[in-house]
Design brief:
By secondary structure, the chain is mainly α. It is globular. It has 16 helices and no strands. It has helices spanning 2-11, 14-42, 51-67, 69-76, 81-104, 110-134, 143-172, 176-200, 210-216, 221-240, 243-271, 276-305, 307-325, 331-359, 365-390, 398-420. The chain has two domains: 13-218, MFS general substrate transporter like domains (Growth Hormone, Chain: A); 219-420, Up-down Bundle (Growth Hormone, Chain: A), CATH 1.20.1250.20.
């Protein structure tokens, strides 16, 4: 099979395997760290938190990707990417120490939130640097396969970190001291990732190339940051003239708002369960498996039916799954819904990313992806806060579940009408 041959070709590249090792050790640590800070908010009997506080915690997790993302390229085009990978995770390993110390002392308020925000903001540099470095270890014609492998395995490593944290809780206890220990264990993964980047790559192997550094050196960093801010506006304008990618991004953004509403409902429901931590672990596992299934089936589906038709299908599947699986709040039906929802979510992301890559001019790619990242995460946060204010404390609202299902159905209807008017490129 072509897919198997491509996969073997990508994995045969030593540089790709080494870069994958840097990624996986870091994302495993991400799972530990985010489980530690999330658990200290959700399941710590010493720390009663409101739905709004939970939504605020997720905003801290997600907004660095939106607020910092557009400006990352300024530095990636100037500094050794090997050094960025190494220093980013070394910095995070060092910041883990005060973060764990604050949790140990029972401080999960503003000081801890600021340290956690800094750790997550640095992660934006790290992940963007991995993406920018990929073309230096894999041939251009195999970048799609390399991206699929890296993202899927990264998600699995992150989920493994979450699962490991759940297992550790049985040993250390679900209190401030226990969550502090879990957060501290992330130091090992970040330290290992930093060391691998430093040892396995020469400082200039991952770029930027000398020509790229020279091209960007005529501007100072403040000037380059100002150009990046203007670039977001230019990227949005360019995207609006590429209708296939534009409407796909709008559909995905609205779907992420509904996804955020479902996320806060699931978290609140798990918080009130007797075995909430275990249930939430299963939620993440089902979500990871769903994302893996999406990565496997979406390329074939888009080749057969085209990206717009597959995105429409996923929206309809979401509407049916939410309307039938979630209103009863039966745990196993909820897990099945999470599985289906994450197939659709990852499938939509692949379609949108591919649409941007195919439709938007190369010189606008980075700016358009920055717009996409901002919409993707910001609208998710909006959904979280809407749910925090509207849902009951246990998250169980049958009316809200049906409204979300209707929302997906309405979104599918709108997207279908856009296609019927012939606005979208049918490819």
């Amino acid at each position: 099979m072509v897919a198997t041959r491509e996969l073997r070709a990508v994995l045969s590249r030593r540089g790709f395997r080494r870069l994958l090792g840097v990624r996986l050790s870091s994302q495993f640590a991400d799972g530990l760290f985010q489980a530690g800070i999330g658990g200290s908010v959700l399941f710590n009997p010493q720390n009663e938190t409101s739905p709004v506080a939970i939504a605020m915690g997720f905003a801290i997790l997600l907004l660095p990707y939106s607020l910092i993302g557009p400006y990352v390229g300024v530095f990636l085009d100037r500094w050794s990417r090997r050094n960025i990978l190494a220093m980013a995770n070394l910095s995070r390993a060092l910041l883990i120490i005060p973060a764990a110390g604050l949790l140990w002392l029972g401080h999960s308020d503003l000081p801890f939130a600021l340290v956690a925000l800094l750790i997550l903001a640095i992660n934006r540099f790290f992940l963007a640097c991995l993406s920018a470095s990929l073309r230096h270890v894999v041939e251009d014609e195999r970048l799609a396969t390399a991206n699929a492998v890296a993202n899927t395995m990264g998600t699995m490593a992150f989920t493994s970190g979450l699962a490991t944290a759940v297992g550790l809780l049985t040993l250390v206890g679900a209190r401030f001291h226990g969550y502090a220990i879990i957060v501290l264990t992330a130091l090992v993964g970040y330290g290992a990732s930093s060391l691998l980047a430093k040892v396995l790559f020469h400082w200039e192997v991952l770029g930027p190339d000398a020509a790229d550094r020279l091209r960007h050196s005529h501007l100072s960093v403040p000037q380059a940051l100002a150009v990046a801010a203007r670039g977001m506006v230019d990227g949005a304008r360019h995207l609006s003239s590429r209708k296939n990618a534009y409407f796909a991004l709008l559909a995905q953004g609205a779907a992420r708002g509904l996804y955020g509403l479902l996320t806060i409902a699931t978290l609140l429901f798990a918080k009130t369960m007797g075995h909430g931590k275990e249930f939430l672990g299963l939620v993440f596992a089902c979500g990871a498996v769903g994302a893996l299934v999406a990565a496997l089936i979406t390329p074939a589906a888009t080749r057969r039916w085209g990206g717009p038709r597959w995105l429409l299908t996923l929206l309809v599947v979401d509407a049916v799954a939410i309307g039938t699986m979630t209103p009863s709040f039966e745990p196993w039906l909820l897990l099945a819904g999470v599985f289906v929802l994450n197939i659709a979510s990852m499938g939509m992301k692949i379609v949108v990313d591919t649409s941007i890559q195919h439709e938007c001019d190369d010189e606008y790619q980075g700016r358009v992806f920055s717009v996409n990242d901002t919409a993707f995460n910001s609208l998710n946060v909006v959904g979280l806060f809407i749910g925090a204010y509207l849902l009951p404390a246990n998250g169980k609202s049958v009316i809200t579940m049906f409204c979300i299902a209707v929302g997906y159905a309405a979104l599918a209807t709108w997207y279908f009408s856009v296609q019927r008017r012939g606005t979208l490129i049918r490819a």
